[in-house]
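Ticket 4471: requesting a sanity check on a complex prediction with 6-phosphogluconic acid. Repro inputs:
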Amino acid sequence: MSAPAITVLADPGELAAQAADHFIELASAALAVRATVAVALAGGSTPRAMNALLAAEPRRGRLDWRRVRFFFGDERCVPPDHADSNYRMTRETLFDPLSIPAANVERIRGEDVPHAAAAAYGARLEALLGESPVFDLVYLGMGPDGHTASLFPGTIATLDARALAIANFVPKFDTYRITVTPRVINAARHVTITAAGAEKAAALAAVINGPRDPNLYPAQLVAPQAGELHWLVDAAAAAQLNLPVS
Ligand code: 6PG
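Returned structure tokens:
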């Protein structure tokens, strides 16, 4: 794996703009060499601003959205119209404004029994992207505890390393979440992790500069074998980072 690229933006607004431009750049480069681009999106709140910029001019006109196949990195175990649904957030901020056809979106069925939903999503990844799925773009966030996707501290030791998607019980929320595994994330051509806010500064410093302890800081599991890792963070999240002087 090549060294991760870390870009520090002034504030969340600048981060969203950079993330949106970066999305267009990477997706356009992929579409120059293949018919469609496969993107796994992050959930949570950070992607909202990036999605809104992608769905608005001038960016919306810079990509043939009909050639983008959308997937999710993780999903909460809730129905698709639930306030906590990553699918609902993304539908409202990206799919509906861009009129993305349902056929181009592979939703994780959070309303189903968790293990069945994970198995079904893994089977769809295999059917659509092959038995060793390679996403062109994977987007992730990072929580203040260093989790990414739904890979949470203390839940890593029992991960099925060969699975494509799992139902991961998250003790802090006393619930399951469905998530792709590090195997899928690290097979991607480009992985972008976004993190904004002072509440993430300690975890970001631990993930980037601290000793390797992925069970404590699961974001350390993100290490694309052949692809590139891009961190897009704001100054507040980067406040405790030891960055090389450029
Ligand atoms: C989710 C995400 C999760 C998220 C981080 C950061 O389902 O919530 O996949 O991993 O990216 O928790 O969330 P924020 O962007 O809301 O800070």
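Notes from triage: The domain at 5-182+195-234 is CATH 3.40.50.1360 (Rossmann fold). Leaving this open until the requester confirms.
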